[in-house]
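Session log. Operator J.P. requested a structure for one protein chain; no other inputs attached. Running the standard single-chain path with token output.
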Amino acid sequence: MQARLNNIFASYHGRPEELISILQQVQEEFGYLPADAMLAVARFTKVPESRVYGVATFYSQFRLSPAGRSRVVVCQGASCHVRGGAAVLDQLAGQLAIQEHETTPDGGYSLETTGCLGVCVRSPCVTLDARLQPTPAPGNLKSLLQGGKCDE
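Structure written below.
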């Protein structure tokens, strides 16, 4: 791990203002922010460990655990929320037996939310592996998780 981190650190000066950029590269390299890597980043940037953790947990772009092979994202923006986004999220969480920001024990799926996917006309919106799915209805979410697509 240290060799991979050293490759990332080589592009920086170790200043506190580089923290977010470094964390982004660490996550790109490992797929998430391992605790040991965050500790190394704290030392390199001379930023307290608590601040590194605070930044990593504040921004939704960062993951503290490995992502699943498939990523399901449910929009919770205003339009999606009023048109059933919360119910879609609840049903997917129930079918996957996880909560948002978690990954199934087999590593198959990660369930996430976002503030907006930018396609409000199709709300509520769900993406599977960054592909927008047709407007989901409660009865067809199961097919989405079984490798199919939601029926319009």
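Operator note: Confidence is low (pLDDT under 50) at residues 148-152.
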